[in-house]
Amino acid sequence: MSVARITEISSSSKKSFQRAIEKGIKRACRTLKNVEGAWVKDQSVILRDGEICEYRVLLKITFVLKD
After folding, report:
1. Which residues of 16-54 are buried (b: 16+ CB within 10 A; e: fewer)?
2. Strand (E) positions, 1-67?
3. Is 60 exposed, middle or buried (0-12, 13-18, 19+ CB in 10 A)?
4. Residue 45 to residue 63: CA distance in whole angstroms
5. CB burial of residue 11 (10 Å; 0-12, 13-18, 19+)
6. Which pLDDT tens digit goes with each residue over 2-53?
7. What is the pTM (predicted TM-score) of this model?
8. What pLDDT was estimated at residue 66?
9. pLDDT of residue 1
10. Among residues 35, 40, 21, 44, which one has the least CA distance to residue 64?
11. DSSP class of residue 65?
12. Contact at 8 Å (CB) between 62 and 9?
């Protein structure tokens, strides 16, 4: 049986929620080993003059700990 840890990270994109998610997962995989899953805990947008200028996501990343 393996033991996993879950950590929260935030990520943003000027283009879309999808891009913010992809950027966050890619970055997590560069730092953490054995990343096995992720889920979106929260989404938000930043507005400027009534227009969306940034998409933000809060991700929970699951990675398995080595023995």
Report:
1. ebeebbebbbeebeeeeeebeebeeeeeeeeeeeeeeee
2. 4-13, 35-48, 51-64
3. middle
4. 27
5. buried
6. 899 999 999 999 999 999 999 999 999 999 999 999 999 999 999 999 999 9
7. 0.90
8. 87
9. 59
10. 35
11. P
12. no
Question: Given CA atoms 35, 39, 45, 51 in this order, what sign does their dihedral have?
Answer: positive
Q: How many CB atoms within 10 Å of residue 59?
A: 21
Q: Which residues lie closer than 8 Å to 29 by C-beta, 6 or more apart?
A: 35
Residue 3: phi and psi, rounded to 5, are: -115, 135
For residue 40, give the amino acid letter: V
Q: Which 8-state DSSP code applies to residue 3? A: -
